[in-house]
Amino acid sequence: MNSHQCYQILGITNAASFKEIKFTYRKLALQLHPDKNMSETDGKKFKMVTEAYQILRAEHKREIN
Predict the structure, then answer these.
(1) Residue ranges in 1-65 assigned as alpha helix (H)
(2) What is the pLDDT of residue 36?
(3) Which of 2, 47, 50, 56 is most solvent-facing, going by the fewest CB within 10 Å?
(4) Is the dihedral of CA 10, 13, 14, 16 positive or negative?
(5) Confidence (pLDDT) at 40
(6) 42 Cβ neighbours under 8 A, 6+ residues apart
(7) pLDDT tens for each residue of 3-60
């Protein structure tokens, strides 16, 4: 998964700040969390959103250092 796909999964633009990325991730994580939703598709979406956030977070950390 590349960073462009990550932005699409989170539903934000490529120009979004890390603060916006984090806010959007937390919002989606609360909506899609498996403990709140028993739907199997929501569990898969939750994993995708989490993976996308982890990739963008790692890129952000690399930029800082």
Answers:
(1) 3-10, 18-32, 40-64
(2) 84
(3) 2
(4) negative
(5) 75
(6) 32, 34
(7) 999 999 999 999 999 999 999 999 999 999 888 877 777 789 999 999 999 999 999 9
Measured between its terminal Cα atoms, the distance across the chain in Å is 22
| The pLDDT value given to residue 53 | 97
How long is the chain? 65
The residue behind tokens 């979004």 is: 16
**43 within 8 A of 30, measured Cβ to Cβ:** no
- Report the pLDDT value the prediction gives residue 15, as an integer from 0 to 100: 92
Q: Nearest-CA neighbor of 29 among 12, 59, 52, 8?
A: 52
Which of these, 30, 51, 52, 25, lies nearest to 42 by C-alpha position? 30
**25: buried, middle or exposed (CB in 10 Å: 19+, 13-18, 0-12)?**
buried
